[in-house]
Design goal:
Layout: E1 2-3, H1 20-25, H2 29-36, H3 43-56, H4 65-75, E2 83-84, H5 87-111, H6 133-140, H7 144-151, H8 168-176, H9 181-201, H10 205-233, H11 237-258, H12 263-272
Helix pairs in contact: 2-3, 4-5, 5-10, 5-11, 6-7, 9-10, 9-11, 10-11, 11-12
């Protein structure tokens, strides 16, 4: 059952009924209260409902879009059979959609008009690990994030952090440890694909959505795109090409991971990826990523 943000059952007399179309398209407080006039509430209940709307939606309901609402409902499934729907959380996922759009648009400037995906050779996780001890340990861990946690455990100020919430300090630590960021992102991508695939089999939509969220927001946007800036400002063509390959593959896999939850924005961005030949005309019929990607 979908309840309001306070856990109350939705009722017209409380003024807390949420129409999905109002969340998708947005609605002002004035129009929300006009909807109450079409109900059969008596004057006392009508005033109580208006007061509830003024308290819960003082600025009305912002336009969130279909993708953000779908993603939020899937993310909420961790609560059990009841969903306490908070519009602010749905709005937060709308901002996440904006982040995905802007990150992809920004990444496409790095790829440039000359890059085509046929240059990407089909490597697997084990092909690009290298000789670093951290990568060898990560292969034996059930969770790549746990391996990174173990490696950074001696840094006390990291208490409470997860590897997907790496801030600038952790970024500097990774550089000091001489960790190859391309390999790091490749491992994170493989881990995300494996986790999402297993989560969907088990109908664990909350885990799948949080994994996609972490990959896009923290690993790609906060870490890798920042790491790429000096590379693409340099004259090293080999480094640029290697970075383009990893970036393209991450965009491709990341969009396909998100597709079941955000079909509209992922389809639009999928069509914009630079490809020499479009094997799958739509992201809807492209294969879902697995850990080999």
């Amino acid at each position: 059952m979908v309840r309001d943000a306070h856990g109350r059952k939705m009722s017209k007399s409380l003024g807390n009924v949420i129409d999905p179309m109002d969340v998708i398209k947005g609605i002002s407080l004035e129009d929300l209260q006009k909807q109450l006039l079409d109900s059969n509430l008596d004057p006392k209940e009508l005033e109580r409902a208006r007061e509830g709307q003024r308290r819960d939606y003082p600025q009305g309901i912002p336009e969130c879009g279909t993708d953000a609402l779908r993603f939020a409902l899937c993310a909420y499934t961790t609560q059990g059979r009841d969903i306490n729907l908070d519009i602010l959380r749905v709005q937060g996922y709308r901002f996440f959609c904006n982040k995905i759009w802007n990150a992809t648009k920004f990444a496409l400037t790095y790829l440039g008009p000359e890059f085509k995906d046929d240059k990407y050779n089909n490597t697997t996780c084990t092909d690009v690990i290298g000789d670093g001890k951290w990568y060898q340990r990560a292969l034996n861990e059930s969770c790549v994030q746990e391996a990174l946690n173990n490696y950074l455990a001696t840094y006390s100020y990291l208490d409470g952090y997860t590897p997907s919430q790496l801030d600038s300090k952790v970024y500097q630590i990774l550089k000091e440890l001489n960790i190859n960021f391309a390999n790091y992102l490749h491992l994170k991508r493989c881990y995300a694909a494996k986790t999402c695939d297993e989560a969907l089999v088990q109908y664990d939509f909350a885990l799948a959505t949080s994994t996609c969220y972490n990959l896009w927001l923290y690993d790609l946007c906060d870490i890798y795109l920042e790491y790429l800036k000096p590379i693409f400002q340099s004259e090293n063509k080999m480094a640029k090409l290697a970075a383009q390959k990893v970036l393209f593959k991450t965009l491709d896999v990341g969009l396909r991971l998100l597709s079941p939850f955000m079909p509209f924005i992922t389809e639009e961005l999928y069509q914009r990826l630079p490809r020499k030949k479009l094997i799958y005309p739509s992201i809807c019929i492209s294969p879902y990523p697995d850990s080999s990607e």
